[in-house]
Design brief:
heterodimer; A: mainly beta; 4-stranded antiparallel sheet; 0% helix; 52% strand; B: mainly beta; 5-stranded antiparallel sheet
Chain lengths: 115, 110
């Protein structure tokens, strides 16, 4: 089955620094990747949608200059949280799929803690 | 009004019980319906996928969609402690953008 690898699984960083999270589709080519954020006991919130080779589409309220998304290849997308602050602490999850893969496959998530 | 409503629970059942998880939605255009299972600190795992109305069965899991009532259900038969997790419903009109419920936390007690 389709496998999506997300790295790192957890990271602690100092306030003001930047953190990069990687999302890789291991056995298929992902034309579309989604980045979600999840707060405790809350639903997944879509942050942005990225299609390979084009700029990401950000959801309303998500700062594109703060959450930089790059989808340079069909197997890799990255989310960089720039100038992280404690309120950015959250669980970030990516999902990847193709045009016919309804449901999409999720990565294992990254727990970001900003101190 | 939220696109998708899901009772967060928590729900606690004895081992072997039948579990019923539900979501309601407001957008009549939704036609792709998914159930995900999420263990603590892990990403969601797709359990069931249903297109349009009807039932779908896979082992101990049955997904039901009632589009006339805008209501979907996931049934788990012979529940096991390993089923303890958060279950998220998700739905989509186009198959691209998904709307998620908040998840229902389930604990199956041995």
């Amino acid at each position: 089955g389709a496998v999506v690898s997300q790295h790192p699984s957890w990271v602690i960083c100092k306030s003001g620094t930047s953190v990069k999270i990687e999302c890789r589709s291991l056995d298929f080519q992902a034309t579309t990747m989604f980045w979600y954020r999840q707060f405790p006991k809350q639903s997944l919130m879509l942050m942005a949608t990225s299609n390979e080779g084009s700029k990401a589409t950000y959801e309303q309220g998500v700062e594109k200059d703060k959450f930089l998304i790059n989808h340079a290849s069909l197997t890799l997308s990255t989310l960089t949280v720039t100038s992280a602050h404690p309120e950015d602490s959250s669980f970030y999850i990516c999902s990847a799929g193709t045009a016919t893969n309804y449901g999409y496959t999720f990565g294992s998530g990254t727990r970001l803690t900003v101190v | 009004q939220k696109e998708v409503e899901q009772d967060p629970g928590p729900l606690s059942v004895p081992e072997g019980a039948i579990v019923s998880l539900n979501c309601t939605y407001s957008n009549s255009a939704f036609q792709y319906f998914m159930w995900y299972r999420q263990y603590s600190r892990k990403g969601p795992e797709l359990l069931m996928y249903t297109y349009s109305s009807g039932n779908k069965e896979d082992g101990r899991f049955t997904a039901q969609v009632d589009k006339s009532s805008k209501y979907i259900s996931l049934f788990i038969r012979d529940s096991q402690p390993s089923d303890s997790a958060t279950y998220l419903c998700a739905m989509s009109a186009s198959g691209n953008q998904f709307y998620f419920g908040t998840g229902t936390s389930l604990t199956v007690i041995p």
